Structure formats: C-alpha cells, structure tokens
Amino acid sequence: MVNVDGKQIKLQIWDTAGQESFCSITCFYYRGAEGSLLVYDITRRETFNHLTSWLEDARQHSSSNMVIMLIGNKSDLESHRDVKREEGEAFAWVHGLIFMETSAKSAFNVEEAFINSAKEIYRKIQQGLFDFHNEANGIKIGPQQSILTSAGLDACQRNSRDVGSDSGCC
C-alpha cells in the first residue's frame, strides 16, 4: 500500500526475473498491467544490454499507456559499476521511461521507485488515460474508493529477501 495524494493505492507486484525463456508466462503478466519496472544490474553490462528486448516485450504485451520505470540496481556497489548512470538516463530519455538508481541491499530508493510509479499511474488515471471501468486492465476501485493497480515487475538479479519478504509477492 502506498499513499498518493491522500489516497491509499494497493500495488500488486509480480517478479518475472529469470523467466525470460518462458515468454508465454512473462507476457501474461503484462496483460492488464499499468506499470512495469525494468531493472538492470549496474555491475553487469549484459543486463543493461537486454533492456531493449525487455522493453519491446513490455510494450508489445501491454497498454500503450503503461508506466515504465527503468531501474539501475546495486548503486551500493559503485566501485564495481559497469554501466554509467548517464547511460541509464540516456536509455530512459530516448525511450520515454522514468529513471532512477536503487540499492535493494541498502533499500536506497526502493520504496521511492514504487511510489513514483504509483504516482505516475494515478496521474494517468486522473487524465483519463486508464479506464478503471474496463475489466481488461489492472485498475480496480475497492470498497473504500481506493485504486488497485496491477504493476508488472521485471527485475534482474532480485529476489524476495531484497525487499524484506519471504514470499515471491510483496
């Protein structure tokens, strides 16, 4: 649950890391998703090199209005950095993505990534870009007029302990 403009928003999060070879499964998660976090490891260039493919999958199987945030993870390992921050920023700018760096280990910017994504989804709802009356999308109005969004989450090298949960879902 996150608070956006005084409203409680519940995010449903799916981690599809390591399932790239099962496109029929990962592609399913994008259907109805209104947000996605594409996460690469700043210490492993090959994860950054996969971004174009991951982004194509996300855009092919989702709404054209889906909020996509690009996350460079492991910012706590600056001395092992293989991908410059400016490269991530440039990729995000070219592709119209929101960008930030995080450290799942130290929790730096992790909560902010989810909150910023939720804020952008909420902004698009306010603009009328998402129809929460259409059951095909992931937005539901709850009994207290709260908004439930289904956010597709792609993560590279992330597991449940990184966010303090023993289950696969946060």
Total helical segments: 5
How many separate structural domains? 1
Give the helix/strand class: alpha/beta
SSE ordering: EEHEHHEHEHEE
Oligomer: single chain
Write up this protein.
With 170 residues, this protein is an alpha/beta fold. The protein has a single domain (2-162), classed as Rossmann fold, CATH 3.40.50.300. The protein is 30% helix and 24% strand. It is built from five helices and seven strands. The protein has helices at residues 23-30, 45-49, 51-60, 85-95, 110-126; strands at 2-4, 7-15, 35-41, 67-73, 98-101, 140-141, 147-154. Strands 1, 2, 3, 4, 5, 6 and 7 form a seven-stranded mixed β-sheet that branches. The radius of gyration is 15 Å and the shape is globular. The termini are close together. The relative contact order is 0.25.
Concise structural overview:
The chain is α/β, with parallel strands linked by helices and 170 residues long.
